[in-house]
Structures are given as structure tokens and as C-alpha cells.
Amino acid sequence: MEAVTVMEAVTVMEAVTVMEAVTVMEASNKREDGTRLMEDKELIREAYKAQKYSYSPYSGFQVGAALLGKSGCVYTGCNIENAAYSPTNCAERTAFFKAVSVGEREFEKIVIVGNKEGGLDEERDYCAPCGVCRQVMAEFCNPKEFMVLLAKSETDYRTYRLEELFPLSFSKDNL
Ligand SMILES: [Zn+2]
């Protein structure tokens, strides 16, 4: 079964609320025995699909992200640049903000892919999240459990726990 994005489900089910759509997708994203259909390579595929929507006319660096919620739903994001530069939003935060804005607050993992526009596949490198995105991940995720996957292809990727990428972080636990 193909992974279903929130927007696809929302489009199909205009009359239902987003949270109802999330519930439907949760069911559609599981096998009969309850295990998840979403394998790493499928999530990587979703990140590459999102990368195609990157709006990056200034840097030419295109980033895609696919965030897996604990509900089983996938939230995708791309980087969205701006002529004034500072309003630019990263792919990872786009995915997180989409998820939180429809009620999902618990997450399992995120895949990040990125490369210069027009670059060759073999020139791809692992694309790590910026510090601001790591801070946003720390707001909603347990750093000991949340996984960050940096992919160069569906089979070539590195996996990190958030605490490896963002040690000694400041979070709501400090307040
Ligand atoms: Zn970022």
C-alpha cells in the first residue's frame, strides 16, 4: 500500500475534519496485525517527493523531509525561501508545523534529503538539520527515542538519535 500524505487524504475527504482524516490514515497505514507499513525506504521516498516542491530560488539547495507521527501518519515538508532571507523555513520545520497544526504531537522519526538543484545523484551527500530545526525537534520529541535519518538514496542512509545530534539541549524540562 502506498503511503498516504495528509494532504491527499484531506483532498479525498473534504467533508470530514482533519483529525478524522488522521484516524482513517492511521488505520490505512497499518497491516492487519497492527504493525506499520511505513518502512524506512518508503519514508525516504516520501522525502524525495517533498523535495520536488522545494522553493529555493536563492540558494538552489533543495531539501525534503518526511516526518512519521506515532499515529502512523506521514507529514512531508520542503524548504521555502524568501527574498528577505530570514522568513525562510526549512523542510524539517515545515513538516513539524504541518503535523502540529492538525493535532499530531508525538513522532517516531524524520527523513531528511537535500542537494543542490541539478546535482547528480552520485554527488548527493547526507543533509543534516540546522540548529533551529534540532531545537524544534527537541520541543516535541524525546531525544533518546526520536530518530533522524539522513538519506542519500532509498538504501544509503545514516540513522541518529536526536540526542546525538543535539546534546545538552534546552527544553521544556529545564523550565
Ligand atoms: Zn533547519
UniProtKB/TrEMBL annotation:
It comes from the Bacteria. InterPro entries: CMP_dCMP_dom (IPR002125), Cyt/Deoxycyt_deaminase (IPR050202), Cyt_deam_tetra (IPR006262), Cytidine_deaminase-like (IPR016193). Zn(2+) binds at C90, C130, C133. The keyword Endoplasmic reticulum does not apply. The keyword DNA repair does not apply. GO terms for cellular component: cytosol. Keywords: Hydrolase, Metal-binding, Zinc. PROSITE patterns: CYT_DCMP_DEAMINASES_2. One of its GO terms (molecular function) is cytidine deaminase activity. Transmembrane segments: none annotated. It catalyses: 2'-deoxycytidine + H2O + H(+) = 2'-deoxyuridine + NH4(+); cytidine + H2O + H(+) = uridine + NH4(+). Substrate binds at N79, I80, E81, N82, A83, A84, Y85. GO terms for biological process: nucleobase-containing small molecule metabolic process; pyrimidine-containing compound metabolic process. It is an enzyme of class 3 (hydrolase). Residues 38-173 form the CMP/dCMP-type deaminase domain. Its EC number is 3.5.4.5. The active site is at E92 (proton donor). Its cofactor is Zn(2+). This enzyme scavenges exogenous and endogenous cytidine and 2'-deoxycytidine for UMP synthesis. Belongs to the cytidine and deoxycytidylate deaminase family. This is Cytidine deaminase.
